[in-house]
Every structure is written in structure tokens, then in C-alpha cells.
Design goal:
The protein has 320 residues and is of the alpha+beta class. The chain contains 14 helices and 7 strands. The relative contact order is 0.13.
């Protein structure tokens, strides 16, 4: 990060009562909504709210306490942030990484015309990182092998039940994700009410008990981070990738085992579906930027999703 990238006070704006406000200035273009959109768990996510004016409200929890923050992109190179709560100072240290200022696409030169054109149109796409492992892991586990609608509903229920109100003037209904010690003590019947089956709930509780071993992966190599995540029973290659994409900003973390991904990659880039193994072989030449390629297809609108056969069924575990 260059010297011009460090946070500076914005003298032209009066922060809301009790807020700490800074402006980030980057030496490369930013695209705030693209960097943050993977962290949103459905339209009703209690920890992530997008306002009509494009500003993004989020909550998080740090060792020093909870934080609410509001981000706005005010120019191609600038993002302003207002933050409230005991965890504000600690959060601000992670802000450059969150908005993608620590991500670099050096060496990424895709030969496929669709990827090359997407990269040309969106050269400012950045992979953001939160540095928060449990906040990425819990919703990823909730999304294991279930319809997104059910996973997002479970996330809303559990945050509304066990999260605390967001500090500061946050939009109504926003909650701060609970700490690991709370996740570890969530009763089995509350997971049941959230429509979370025992396999996923046990994985969350088990991961929360190991949180002090998992949070340090943000400073490890991607290989060591993945190895430690997958050492936890219930966390496989897909879940590990989903966590590494968000917590570590890993531009190569490919969600192998995803219900749709291999098919989408195949249809988009070759005109035919692929298996996971075929996808891995096909994308091998663009390592370490495979997840970047997936994001480019998403944000450029070029990803092909053929609708063959019936939609997947939302399973209700609450009656079991």
C-alpha cells in the first residue's frame, strides 16, 4: 500500500454524532460494491445493508468489541467510512484490506476472450478481505448443500436471536454477529428452529470451540490456512474456499463442490457443462487467480446459467 493509501481525515464532512470518519485514498481505482458484495448473505442480512444512495452499512466484531460502519464511494479512488462502537480502532486497521486495496492482479492475463474482455471492462475489480474467520465460516457452513433461501433465512434468525444490536445510528434491525463463545453455546433446538440440520449445527459449534486456532489463519499462507480449516470435521474444500475468499481475500480460492459452479464455468467458457475435475484442469493455467476469474464472470454479467430441469427444493429440517 502506498503512502497515499493510508486513511486521512476528511475535513469537508462533519461526521455523525459519536462517529469516527476517515477517507481512504487509493493509487488505483476502487469498486466498493464489487469488493463487498460477496460478504452479503441475502437481501435481509442483518449484518449488511445497502442503501438506495449506494452506501453500505455493515457490522462486525473484533477483540476490542463490536463495530458498525458505513462506507461510501465518493470517487474512483476514494472511499469514506463512518464507524461507531468499541471495535472501531481495530476495524480501521483492516479497512484497506476490506475495500480491496491490498489485492493485486499482477500476472493475471487470461487468454480466453470472455475473461479477457471482462478483465478489460472491470480492471478495478478487487478481492476484499475482512480478516474475520468466524464471521465468514458460520454463514458458509449454513450454506452447505442447501438452497440459498434457507441458508439466508437461518443466518437472519440466528443473528436476530443471538447477535447484539448494532452500535451507532445503524438502520433498524441490524445486528452484530455473536462471538465464538456464544456460537459454541447456541442450543440444538435453536439451530433446529433456524432450519439447520444437526450436521451443520455441530460443525458450527465445533468450529466455535476451535476459534482461537482458526482466527490466526489470516496471517498464514493459503496452503496452511486451508489445511487448518479442513482439519475441522465438517469443513471440506468448498467451505474452506468460501471462508478464504472472504476472510483472507484469496483470489485463487475456487469453490470446488459447488452445486452450479463447474457447470457455469463450462457453459460460459466452452459451451458445455464441466465436472469439478474438468473445471480444475481448465482453470489451472490462470492460478493464482481462479476466484478472480469467477468474480469477473459474475460482475460482468457474462456467466451463463442454463436452466435445465427443476429447481432445487428447499428442505425443511424443522419437522424432523
Amino acid at each position: 500500500m502506498s503512502a497515499s493509501s493510508f486513511p486521512v481525515l476528511d475535513p469537508g464532512h462533519t461526521p455523525r454524532s459519536g462517529a469516527v470518519e476517515i477517507t481512504l485514498t487509493s493509487d488505483r481505482p476502487l469498486a466498493l460494491r464489487y469488493s463487498l458484495s460477496p460478504h452479503r448473505r441475502g437481501a435481509g442480512d442483518p449484518a449488511h445493508r445497502v442503501e438506495a444512495d449506494g452506501s453500505i452499512w455493515r457490522t462486525s466484531r473484533f477483540r476490542t468489541g463490536p463495530v458498525t460502519y458505513r462506507l461510501r464511494q465518493v470517487g474512483r479512488f476514494e472511499v469514506t467510512c463512518e464507524a461507531w462502537g468499541a471495535g472501531t480502532a481495530e476495524f480501521l486497521d483492516t479497512l484497506p484490506g476490506l475495500v480491496g486495496m491490498e489485492d493485486h492482479a499482477d500476472g493475471f492475463a487470461p487468454e480466453h476472450r470472455i475473461l479477457a474482455e471482462a478483465h478489460r471492462r472491470f480492471p478495478h475489480l478487487r478481492i476484499g478481505r475482512t480478516g474475520q474467520v468466524m464471521e465468514a465460516l458460520v454463514p458458509a457452513v449454513l450454506e452447505q448443500k442447501v438452497h440459498g433461501v434457507a441458508a439466508f433465512a437461518a443466518w437472519r434468525y440466528l443473528l436476530s436471536k443471538f447477535g447484539e444490536p448494532a452500535p451507532g445510528p445503524a438502520p433498524a434491525g441490524m445486528r452484530v454477529p455473536p462471538p465464538a463463545e456464544v456460537w459454541r453455546r447456541v442450543p440444538s433446538w435453536e439451530f433446529h428452529r433456524a432450519n439447520v440440520d444437526p450436521k451443520r449445527s455441530k460443525t458450527i459449534v465445533r468450529s466455535a470451540a476451535l476459534a482461537d486456532k482458526l482466527e490466526p489463519i489470516v496471517s498464514m499462507t493459503r496452503e496452511d490456512a486451508e489445511r487448518r480449516l479442513r482439519h475441522v470435521p465438517g469443513i471440506g474444500v468448498w467451505t474452506a474456499a468460501e471462508v478464504m475468499q472472504r476472510a483472507l481475500g484469496d483470489a485463487d480460492a475456487l469453490s470446488v463442490g459447488d452445486y452450479h459452479l463447474a457447470s457455469v464455468i463450462g457453459w460460459t467458457l466452452t459451451g458445455a457443462p464441466m465436472t469439478d475435475d474438468e473445471m480444475l484442469e481448465y482453470l489451472a493455467p490462470i492460478r493464482p487467480h481462479r476466484y478472480r476469474a469467477v468474480r469477473l464472470l459474475e460482475v460482468s454479467g457474462t456467466a451463463v446459467r442454463p436452466k435445465f430441469g427443476p429447481r432445487t427444493v428447499v428442505t425443511d429440517h424443522r419437522h424432523h
